[in-house]
């Protein structure tokens, strides 16, 4: 692992003598000190734990990601719906205190596109309830939603609404959380769909007065369902087509910015996953490898591209749901997967289309989705780390911690020396780029050589690291560079021209490095 880089105090000697400052004193010395040290392994190169160790100690690259990931909220939307009810007596009469004088049952239908939903579980969302009371006494309003249950108990809300008048009704507002509730949407007859039953009961204030209520005194109730997100559903989900052109970032590739790599072999699986109990079909129209640094792209050539795929429903229920997986194997023999990956992509673009219930309601209204149900495409890359590189560019950036006084210290001459023990069978030319607080380059130290490659044995394995060093010359301007630098970028050019073959990487491969200084200083007091 690379240690944090430190620029040690360039005027350590001046600090010692500062308390005995004398006018016009000058001191020439040489500064030799460590600046940075650490190790660089293959995990550090990609910053992602994607390597497994084989029994022979070689490394295997195993990378899995979802390049399409649709939970059911992506497939199925419950529109915001407002139910408005005006409840009133059939005749006018005197209502004594504490009298239940209205009990009304209604059915309302959700407009859920072309779906016919019998049962729905709510992951999040709720309702905003507004009540307008024109009656000249306070009332207790009870709203019950039969069949909307949590742990077998119907949702029921009782609230007290102050007295009002017909010209100035009292307004009361209430929020209800529907998270965790199951909604039975089969209606009163049990054979409907998208239908919600509601019961409204009104009782006059037991501590109020007897009031005269006419059949024109309507209590208005608005129930606004908002942001309902489902995690369970049963019914017919309708015929739906979902298409998109998605970009997927491959973060572990972003540090490789140029050059080429020749891959020995590769095996990639695209798994189309259906975790919903519904028949579907799908097609992958395009899969493209993008190198955003070089602005190059390569389309995958494989027989599956553009082919319509029939996708069976998942099986099981709730926490036991078993997705149906349609595997697509892509290898060097049936595709251009090697140049596709040798492009060093840091992005993939996938153009796809899924269709739910392409044949209509063949399940008889018994489509299901569960909390663990998802639909998508999973990428699984499995390949040995056997390859060769040709000027493969790798970058990494580290913070600098600086403690120095440029007014009292002046560099007269010198050099920075990078020494390394290298197991990798690749040579490295390393440039040091100093960056300001905006991440912009201030200066670059170029090397006069390279870190030599490890030497493979007859089996292609490096058992003993190669020790070598790179020297960077610094001049009088380097002090100002140090003063303005907040970060240092290491730009490494990897090349195995000295051993021009494909080599396996082993789990003990690393670079153990030290960066030290040998700088002449003029210190003034």
Structure commentary:
It is a single chain. Mean pLDDT is 84; it is low at 1-23. The chain has three domains: 5-58 and 389-524, Jelly Rolls, CATH 2.60.120; 60-74 and 237-384, Jelly Rolls; 77-236, Jelly Rolls (Sandwich). The longest helix has 7 residues, at 478-484. The protein is elongated and about 105 Å long. The protein has helices at residues 12-17, 42-46, 72-75, 337-342, 478-484, and strands spanning 5-7, 26-31, 34-41, 51-53, 59-71, 81-87, 93-95, 100-109, 116-133, 139-150, 153-161, 170-177, 182-184, 195-204, 211-213, 219-236, 240-249, 256-263, 267-274, 280-291, 296-299, 309-311, 324-331, 347-356, 367-369, 374-384, 386-402, 409-422, 427-435, 441-445, 466-474, 487-495, 503-504, 510-524. The protein contains five helices and 34 strands. The chain is mainly beta. The strands form six sheets. Strands 6, 8, 9, 10, 11, 12, 13, 14, 16 and 25 form a ten-stranded antiparallel β-sheet that branches. Strands 1, 18, 27, 29, 30, 32 and 33 form a seven-stranded mixed β-sheet that branches. Strands 2, 3, 28, 31 and 34 form a five-stranded antiparallel β-sheet that branches. 5% of the residues lie in helices and 55% in strands. A hairpin with a 4-residue loop joins strand 20 (280-291) and strand 21 (296-299).
């Amino acid at each position: 692992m690379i240690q944090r880089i430190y620029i040690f105090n360039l005027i350590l000697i001046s600090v010692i003598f500062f308390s005995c400052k004398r006018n016009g004193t000058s001191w020439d010395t040489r500064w030799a000190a460590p600046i940075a040290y650490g190790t660089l392994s293959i995990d550090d190169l990609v910053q992602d734990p994607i390597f497994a160790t084989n029994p022979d100690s070689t490394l295997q690259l195993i990378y899995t990601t979802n390049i399409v990931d649709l939970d059911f909220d992506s497939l199925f939307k419950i529109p915001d719906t407002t139910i408005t009810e005006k409840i009133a007596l059939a005749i006018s009469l005197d209502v004594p205190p504490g009298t239940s004088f209205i009990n009304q049952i209604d059915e309302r239908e959700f407009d859920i596109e072309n779906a016919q939903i019998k049962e729905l579980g709510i992951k999040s969302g709720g309702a905003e309830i507004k009540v307008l009371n024109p009656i000249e006494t306070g009332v207790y309003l009870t709203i019950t939603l039969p069949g909307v249950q949590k742990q077998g108990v119907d949702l029921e809300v009782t609230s007290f609404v102050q007295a009002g008048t017909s010209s100035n009704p009292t307004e009361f507002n209430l929020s209800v959380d529907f998270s965790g509730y199951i909604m039975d949407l089969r209606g009163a007859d049990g054979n409907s769909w998208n239908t919600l039953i509601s019961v409204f009961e009104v009782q006059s204030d037991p501590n109020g007065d007897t009031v005269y209520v006419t059949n024109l005194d309507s209590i208005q109730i608005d129930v606004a369902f908002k942001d309902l997100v489902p995690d369970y559903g049963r019914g017919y989900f309708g015929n739906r087509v979902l298409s998109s052109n998605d970009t997927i970032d491959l973060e572990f590739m972003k540090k490789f910015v140029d050059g080429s790599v020749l891959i020995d072999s590769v095996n990639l699986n695209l798994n189309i996953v259906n975790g919903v109990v519904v028949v579907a079909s799908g097609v992958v129209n395009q899969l493209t490898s993008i190198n955003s640094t070089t602005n190059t792209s390569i389309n995958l050539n494989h027989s599956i591209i553009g082919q319509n795929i029939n996708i069976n429903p998942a099986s099981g229920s709730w926490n036991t749901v078993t997705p149906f997986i349609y595997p697509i194997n892509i290898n060097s023999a049936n595709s251009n997967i090697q140049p596709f990956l040798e492009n060093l992509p840091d992005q993939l673009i996938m153009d796809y289309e899924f269709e739910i219930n392409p044949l209509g309601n063949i399940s008889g209204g018994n489509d299901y989705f569960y909390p663990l149900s998802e639909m998508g495409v999973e990428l699984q890359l499995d390949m040995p780390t056997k390859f060769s590189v040709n000027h493969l560019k790798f970058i990494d950036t580290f913070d600098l911690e600086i403690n120095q006084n440029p007014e009292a210290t002046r560099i007269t001459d010198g050099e920075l020396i990078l020494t390394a023990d290298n197991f990798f069978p690749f040579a490295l030319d390393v440039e040091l780029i100093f960056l300001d607080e905006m991440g912009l380059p201030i200066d670059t130290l170029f090397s006069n050589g390279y870190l030599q490659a490890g030497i493979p044995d007859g089996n292609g394995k490096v058992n003993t690291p190669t020790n070598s060093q790179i020297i960077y010359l610094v001049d009088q301007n380097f002090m100002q560079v140090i003063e303005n630098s907040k970060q240092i970028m290491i730009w490494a050019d990897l090349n195995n021209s000295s051993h021009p073959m494909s080599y396996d990487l082993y789990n003990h491969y690393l670079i153990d490095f030290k960066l030290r200084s040998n700088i002449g200083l003029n210190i003034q007091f």
